Amino acid sequence: MRASSTIVATLAVIALLGSGCGRGPHPGPPPGAPGEHGAAANDFHGVSANSVFGSVDIKETADLCAGRVQLSQGNATVNDACFSGDTNVVLCTDTSSASAVQCAATNGKLVLAGNGSDQINYARVR
To answer: What pLDDT sits at residue 35?
Structure first.
């Protein structure tokens, strides 16, 4: 008798955790929010998320500063106004090999250093 009540209790807890909070995907910005009447808005492209702890706030920036560049003799420079200075946080990944890559943002450009002609993905986070 005790084993069956433990099984029932376990199944009830699993069902409760699996049900979440019952909230659907975020419907988008409310009426009158930025983005209406010609103002720039974040384009969500239908992205939504939920968790067992409630809804999830997803933000997508339309002016994403990211790309891919191939090194020439281990160096490359990306000229783009989205890089506003040395306080920018930039992530760089060598997609050609498991090699270290250096990336440093300055005003108007990103300077990259790595190995040979490796291909580097970069993204400005902040």
So the answer is: 46
